[in-house]
């Protein structure tokens, strides 16, 4: 693939794979000619409907297809939504080198060791104003900015078509906790030289004014520490190194020993102390098992769980499930964080549980115990004034944020025709004189389960949603190789709310099995010349599942997940005379018109005929022998079905119902 506009003029292509129309999984691709450079590779948190999903990543199909062109990666800072996806991506493709700040690279090294992918790349740390060359066409200068994590950078990327400024996450904090100021002079230098395009963080684009400095929370936290009667329990983002540093400073000021809870909190503090971003004596920390022996007035617990994560320390404490810590009525619990969109309900539920236990809980904007790490409208204006870009693309935010940011850019003199609002997978093509959208690439999401190895595909997610909403029905049937039902079906319900009893469901199952054997068996089996016919058992299962599902949807208005398990029986096995025959099914056999590999079935509904020879093998459930199943018929299934009233007309199976 070449970077060109309609094959005429070479151009720079910028392709976000994550971080647009959403919060999280920030991942962006820069490419020119045969060079491809990645900027960040983050993750996101699952939404409520993503059952069993722990991590959401961007779809990296495009990167896997072009992995030979990847020359390296640039990391702006160490938040999970910017580095959390890197270990997983390294399992699928190599990245020759990763450049990034010391703290982010230290955190990434631990993640890579845990994932056993340290041999898939080389890590290089950088300092402010360092310039690195990636491939033949990219030179990247790291410009210090201020954010809610230490060691954060914006990027000035020099390309053959001009300079592109990529802000990363930023705000203008003129009193930084660590004394590392935003390098405004260097950003202004590039503005003087000429910036072709600015890609800027849009997270707080809807909020007027400047974002308050991190130090603004210090006096409010100080007041709550001073007024606390017993233990102080604080939860915040583990990666908010500046906030953690202030909390530890206040612990020393008020004579409190600190106990740490949460794996990420322990890891980040250890690495930040090692690199000098947090300075405090070793004696400040006490193991959690020993801190219980100290007076409550001398205790501070710092932990994860500010987002209501089910397995985080504070969430477990709120449910009374933590082995070392139980809530006391004298505790003061401080939420020094705001909920990420999508986490609000879980955070509120955690707060409610803690309050019901009698603790004093301090939370919310009115308390002044949290400030954002992202710039608001005046920060955005200052960035635009410093860089004076010719073209502008708002990134890192939901759609309304991107729109607000584009309006801010227009108010600062950027023409509307020079602004693009894009989505994940869109391709921004840049030349010295033009910006426009190219042909989009594949984008989407990859869902990881708790192991962070297994991909949860769309089919699995849909089945989990069905299980959560309507439950599951398992159906065991015995069918001989010559197409007869050899034993009564056994139906088992889990989580299904229905007025139908087991007898009725069993009768419905018999009818669906009988219908499939009478009307579909010829298409699902063939005589291959051997003793037994070649049966497409997968097709048999699927036909029964679909038929029963349609009947349940029509009769009971429920759509449970239906799993049909077929136990094959030898040919010649006696046929089971089921109860369904006492109430014969009056549905006519389908009229079938063959068209090559398709069949028109049931009043014109088109269905592809399964080919037994081409059907992939599917492992069938190991069930009891046919004779044993027949003997173990449940008592409910042995009852005789009552006669139908004379004035009742049985409904026939329609096309829609199957």
Helices, by number, come to 18
Structural class: alpha/beta
Beta content: 15-25%
Could you estimate the helical fraction of the residues in percent?
25-40%
- N-to-C span: 48 Å
**What coarse outline follows from CA principal-axis ratios?**
globular
Mean pLDDT: 84
Contiguous runs where pLDDT drops below 50 for at least 5 residues? 592-658
Number of strands: 32
Written account of the structure:
The structure is a single chain. About 30% of the residues lie in helices and about 25% in strands. The protein has an 8-stranded mixed beta sheet. The chain has a 6-stranded mixed beta sheet with strand order 10-11-12-13-14-20, covered by helices on one side. A 5-stranded parallel beta sheet has the order 16-17-15-18-19, with helices on both faces. Strand 30 and strand 31 form a beta hairpin. It is globular. With about 650 residues, the chain is α/β, with parallel strands linked by helices. Helix 5 packs across helix 12 and helix 6 crosses helix 7.
